[in-house]
Amino acid sequence: MRSPSKMMLAMMLAALGAGCSQQRQAPEDSRAMAQYYAQWQQSLHAQSKKGGANAQMPIELSDEVQYRFVKNRLKAAGLNAQNAPRLFARLEEIRSRGKQAAGVSGLGGTTQGAWCGHMIPLGGVGRDVAQARFQGTGLTSCFNGSDYAFVDLNAFITDGARMVFEPVGSESYEEYGGKVLETAPLSLSLPRLAGKELLADSLAIAFNEVTGQEHLTYTSVTATLHPPVGEGDILVDHPRELLDETPSDQAIRICLERGSAEGFLDCDYGAVRVLPDGGWKPFAGAATGIAAVDVEASKAFALDGGTPTWIPDRSAYWEPEVKPFDPTRFQVPTRGKFVPHVLEECQVTKVTSKVAAILLDTGGLCEAGGTPGTTVAQGELPFKPSTAPGEFPFDGIMDFGTGNCLNNAQNVRLEIWVYAEGTCPDPFGGEPEPFRCPSKAEVQPVDYKRGCLAEGTQVTRADGKAVPVEQVKVGDTLLANGKGLALTVTTVHRGGERKPLVKLRDDHGGEVQVTDTHPLVTVARGVVPAGELKVGEAVLTRAGARKLVAVERVPYEGRVYNFSLGTPEELAHVGLESRSLYANGFLVGDSQLQAELEKQKRLDAREVLARLHGAWHEDFRLSRARLTRK
């Protein structure tokens, strides 16, 4: 075998030296960032703002230490100015702006109302008395996606003074044109040692060239390693899928303004009005809260040939803390308990939580318990006073605001993270040992349903007769197109609407009022949500193509209705586009066509983002080349 050349030996030694240097630098960088993070947390508390573990801190590239941290983290992931030129150029741009605007806080990111969210879903696993076991990921998600995003997770064994940093594991991940970015799970099994802690930290970077948005944040979580802290259980009773008989529709469906009242029931939770006489009315105006469906009662109602009807479960009902109940906000009822596993002699003194509603289709995170419409998770579980030793119950409504969580049938993942803190006696009689332990749980997918026709709208039955939407029943047949196709009504959806409706008028005087997401069939663009229609556009009606002469928003306070059309036998020979009906003569889609339209729209958006901005093409090509070499 030929001996390696001097040049090859030099390259090998240089690579080994770089690796050793990198291993030495990672602890130094994380030690410095831990100090910055502690100072940042103190500044938040001084301003009476929320902080704590797993809060995302903006990174200032104008600061030499933070700049070094970012570059070394990227280097550890195999990225440099040669194989990721656009990424490093953008970082230099931010750094240059930071130097020119010294003292400006939050360059590269914000902590509230941010474009991207960033957190570490880390939890203890198992109850091994000799080993502390954890599993977690680094996660970032940007609303409407990014051209480029990077996230990592690094773990260290450290001491209470944050002087010793021993690396024990790392993961990183980058993606082009993505929305939800998460590293592979990092699983750790560490010896339980008094005075030692696990510190996990994460860097997140994202850029969108079209909007000019940029994101650069750091977050961190710690957990003690000494006994007797074990795995904590987050036991979630609600929300969960209650109507789980349809394999094709496995979402936990929350119907706040309107829902499936008769026929095929697909609302696990719905808005309910409790009447003064003690009666309960679902999907009605002036709702007082949210109830789960009573599955057994609803099934029993359908016995002897009756139609299944949505009946609320009186034992699973929630009212909001702030009244009156507002069904235009994305609200999730939750009930369960957190059980931290510690020895009896230990005392839990503080339990905090964070709930992220991650938008799986569009990207971004909703906020619970904060400013409506923002995109960064700051939510908390609604904890109640403990009723049993060692248990922390939660029961109430989490309010995620009026923003981007409200897309119809959009999949949402609830990431629940609980942090328990307390003290355990020192077995040698010294001061009590403090402990901190994270736990996590996921609930997915959760979605929301909307889109309907105004009360009084005339729909056309199979026999050609027009009847008001409120008179249509499960089992009726409606005319689906101009070729005589008729489809059976399998579900009746009803409810209220507080937002303005879209009022359409054609050049022959025809008018219809629908919610802004309700689909209409156009001549040129096919199926389009009503809110996107323009004056002059041609739509299909029972009398043929008609041009729109007016598209306006009008206030509305009445009830709204929608239908699911087609039995399995009827739908076996028709396409999805045939799931339509005539509303005041306009050809509109049913609830299933609407859901598919919005899903396809989100898929199209992903495809557009996949066709990256030209500035990132070279980085993308080099990234593919790196993966090929691996």
Automatic annotation (TrEMBL):
Mitochondrion as a keyword? no
Ranges for domain Hint come to: 450-543
InterPro entries assigned = Hint_dom_N (IPR003587), Hint_dom_sf (IPR036844)
Q: What residue range is the signal peptide?
A: 1-26
> Keywords, A to Z?
Signal
Gene3D superfamilies linked: Hedgehog/Intein (Hint) domain
Report if keyword Signal is assigned: yes
Q: Which CDD domains match?
A: Hint
Regions that span the bilayer: none
Q: What is this protein called?
A: Hint domain-containing protein
